[in-house]
Design goal:
By secondary structure, this protein is α/β, with parallel strands linked by helices. The chain is built from 10 helices and 6 strands; from the N terminus they run βαβααβααβααβαβαα. It has a 6-stranded parallel beta sheet with strand order 3-2-1-4-5-6, with helices on both faces. The termini are far apart.
Length: about 220
């Protein structure tokens, strides 16, 4: 798909518990590939899919703190949004995008008239049809999919074509292939896995005694 010459917002959502080098590498490489005017990072406030499974999430304050520390040295036009963490209820991506566009319409005509690139891993390509009002979401974004690890590119391409044909989705598969990094592994021993964590975020983890085992 040809990338339109209009203002571009790259949207990168996630739990970021913690931010790790896989996130950083994706941001740097996708920035080179699609050249967004800004990158809006949106940490999840209440990630309902994880909460339903009983997965405990680090506080919004600390996840945002790790994010801010982890990206501060990146030469990228990053904005960290609290659009989801300021809410007391779970957020759906379709509502977050709508709210972001509404705010842009009020404050920044440049971005409101542009394209919104939704950055994600290839797993989302196969899960998005289970998301809340996914067809509406696909109509509002350009799904920007990064393959990871041993992902089969042909399988990903076939799924891309299927979603495009069924729903008129706009989908890009990046040429960058990301690393598979386990946040669970990092949380289990940040010191041992500090090479997987941006330096600033690692310092924040140590300073605030996050992920310390309570045996």
């Amino acid at each position: 798909m040809e990338i339109a010459d209009r203002p571009k917002t790259a949207i990168f959502g996630g739990t970021f518990d913690p931010i790790h080098m896989g996130h950083v590498e994706l941001l740097e490489n996708v920035y080179e590939e699609i050249c967004p005017d800004r990158i809006v990072i949106i940490p999840s406030g209440h990630p309902y899919m994880k909460e339903e499974k009983g997965i405990r999430i680090t506080s919004c304050t600390d996840r945002i703190g790790m994010l801010e520390a982890g990206v501060k040295d990146l030469d990228l036009p990053i904005v960290i949004s609290r659009i989801e963490t300021d809410k007391d209820t779970p957020s759906y991506s379709v509502d977050t995008i709508a709210e972001l566009k509404e705010k842009d319409g009020e404050t920044s005509e440049k971005y409101a008239d542009g394209d919104y690139y939704f950055l994600c891993g290839s797993d989302i390509l196969f899960e998005i049809e289970k998301w809340h009002e996914f067809e509406k979401l696909l109509g509002e974004i350009i799904l920007t999919v990064t393959p990871r690890g041993e992902d089969d590119i042909e399988v990903i391409r076939r799924k891309k074509e299927d979603l495009e044909e069924k729903y008129g989705a706009r989908i890009i598969i990046t040429s960058f292939r990301g690393r598979v990094i386990s946040s669970t592994l990092i949380r289990s021993n940040p010191e041992k896995n500090k090479d997987l964590i941006p330096e600033g975020a690692f310092e924040y983890i140590k300073e605030h005694h996050l992920y310390e085992r309570k045996d």
